[in-house]
Predict the structure.
Amino acid sequence: MQVVWARGECCVQEVLDRLGSPLAYTTVMTTLDRLYKKGLLTRRRADRAYVYSAALTRAEWEKQTASRLISGYLAGAAHSPELLVSSFVDALGQHDEQLLDELERKVRRKRRELERRGRE
Amino acid sequence: MILSYELRLMVLCAAVFLLVNLAAGILARWTAPRMARWAEGMPAARAARLLFALRLAPTGLAGLVVAGFCVPAYLWLEPSVAVAERAGWPVLLLATAGAALWLDSGWRAARAWVCARRWVAACRRSGQWVALAGAGEEVLVTPDAAPVLALAGVWRPRIVVSSAMLRELSPGQLRAALAHEQAHRDSRENLKRLLLLGAPDVLPFLRQLAFVERAWSRYAEWCADDRAAAGSEERGATLALALVRVARLGAAPAFSPAGSSFLTPDHSLAERVDRLVAGPAPLVVEDSPRRWWTRLGLALAASGLLALALHPATQAAVHDFLELVLRA
């Protein structure tokens, strides 16, 4: 999927070239065929080969995956939604802290540079 | 359905407004992504002006057609004697949709205005007026523990700051943050927000042009950042540090969509900080010759439209069109 999203449209050989790993042509072909049957790819015939393109954008796919994950989790009677929400909040808070640290470092670097320039 | 003279005028106005707004709205919606891409290469102030004009263009055009063409043509050429005239169902449906369009946006704007008024009143009750460096006039300091720094009020906007912010920010950071809010105040941003909320969208109850409003809001924030930095790298870095400091304090309470907050959750903090750190924010030139030329062009266009609207042949053609719409 990463290759198809990056290239827009590609045939089996192009995917194989981009993967750069020693996979058999038929393995990649079967995988693309399965992705097509699952509705993740669309394809059209060009000459004698299929050209594949993504049926969903990366954002749409991520949204779909996340919503499937959450629905699956909440479907279990023993699982509490509060637990899920609190885990999300923790994860986001951690992410925010890291981001803020990074931003603060950036600003402080800039200020140091300005001070140095001021002294020169 | 048989309608009176005045009711016919109202029905026609609502129906024509809907039709023109729909056509112009579809065009605006279609051009908006291209405009947004074009705006990316512009200074923030100009990009904000462009997107603001784009969002209000359908409403402005529809209002102009109704007020400048339909109403005069109807009042001058429609006999006001008590003649019972039948209005067709299509025009009644269009008028209902037109009224729904205004009710939807009117309700949105009224709710935002009431929320802003209530919040300012609550701040006035609990806070006190203090003169702080960086703000053009006294600011309202509230004893809140939440990180509040906002411009509240539509007609006479005031800067509101919580005591938590005064404690957390250094004098330089506070001055930069207040200058940011002062920039919002100087460009009457809250009134613009209210206008955007009150401007009907393409269709009632569907927010097709909301992303233009979000893009405008983003550039408005950038523009206020630029004005607060005033072309100085030092002030830009101080403002960036103030933004990070405020973000660490947590989320500020949302008080009204017709108000400006120093740190809004829908605008990327990282983007704003990167922009401020990246280099000298350009000084905003207020009255450049380009703006005067734009004003002159708009004045000329308005005069031309007025002359066209008052021309007897235009009036007759518009009246014929209104008759057609009414009997459709």
The mean pLDDT of chain A is 81.
